[in-house]
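Lab meeting prep.
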Amino acid sequence: MTIDTAIKNDQEYEAALEAIEQLLEAEPGTLEDEKFEKLAKMIAEYDDIHHKLNE
């Protein structure tokens, strides 16, 4: 998985969760912050498709 592609499976999802944890304290405007934002979007998109909560 690269940060520029969608998460394809649960293994990549778990890896993304681990990676984003390392970026939680990234300073705004840094490369790490950019990576955090991209990972957060990818994780949210995967969650929306594969981990829907009952409404």
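Slide two material, second protein:
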Amino acid sequence: MMWLSCAFLFAGLFFFTTGTIGLLRFPDVYTRTHATTKCDTLGALLCITGLMIYTGWSLELIKLLILIIFLWIGSPTTAHLIAKAALESGVPVCTDTIEEGRYLRD
């Protein structure tokens, strides 16, 4: 069980690292928010699943399940609100972004 737990933890760390790279490399707030939210939610799920396997059947398992529920509700909701606030305040979209099958710079 320890190997399975470590596999989930390392997979979660991979997605956290990928999200961090996306945050640093993507050009605007919208793509950065997308990259970090997707990788953060999946990375947290995998890491918490690894912890659930490690702890076994206990009270901590219930607490970790509740934590997953809060993360899966809170993280996408927060990202949506950040992107909506950026859009309403006039933050520009990168000119290389594709919208409806065409580049915005065309």
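Talking points for slide two:
Strands lie at 98-99, 102-103.
The chain has a mean pLDDT of 85.
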